[in-house]
Amino acid sequence: MSGTSSTPTDLDILVQGYSTRYAAAIKKLLLIEGGFVDDPLDRGGATKFGISLRFLAVAGAFDSDGDGIADFDLDMDGDIDGVDIRKLTRGDAVYLYLKHFWEPLGADSLPVPIGEMLFDQGVNGGLTAARKLLQRAINTGLLLIPVSTAKKSLLKVDGGIGDITMAALREVVQSNSFGVTGLVSAYRDAVRERYRNIVARYPEQKRFLNGWLARAEELGR
Hints:
This protein is mainly α. The chain has 2 domains: 9-103, no CATH class; 111-221, no CATH class. It is built from 10 helices and 2 strands. A two-stranded antiparallel sheet has the order 1-2. It is globular. 30% of the residues are buried.
């Protein structure tokens, strides 16, 4: 008899209305991000489930029901502050991550686990950073695969995922000498470099480096 319970958790029930890929990705992300944290060295301010105050103050300022109060002014006091971060539910986080990260990145349209890696890094460093990391990883592949028309021109690393980037993505993924495995490895390497560059620029962030590198190692798994 297996020691693993098959009883669904509250989070399983919460995400069952989403795509299978998103449900799996958000469960993993929420485990990584954890609960409420108010670290004075975190430039995003207080966070809960990885949602920062800086992000929520912008993303949560809409008023969908027209009652004159921002939807994520959860204590209804006229502003979005640390109290509202504390009041965030898992359901709130699942919704915000879908609308502001998973869907804008087009994660469902990307190969597994490429979409999942972009989602993780979009949350961790922003949508543009996540896309640039992908373009850098693709360029690594273009340099390593046999001579092709794609290899003659590397991607401009600008964070724009259009037809040219998608064609290059297909080129490296379909290559027997690189493929998805090679792309995952190259993406991890690009993420590690990004983290080390952050620490080089902001030495006070060094205490986070080991955790960030561990996060990079788990990408694509």
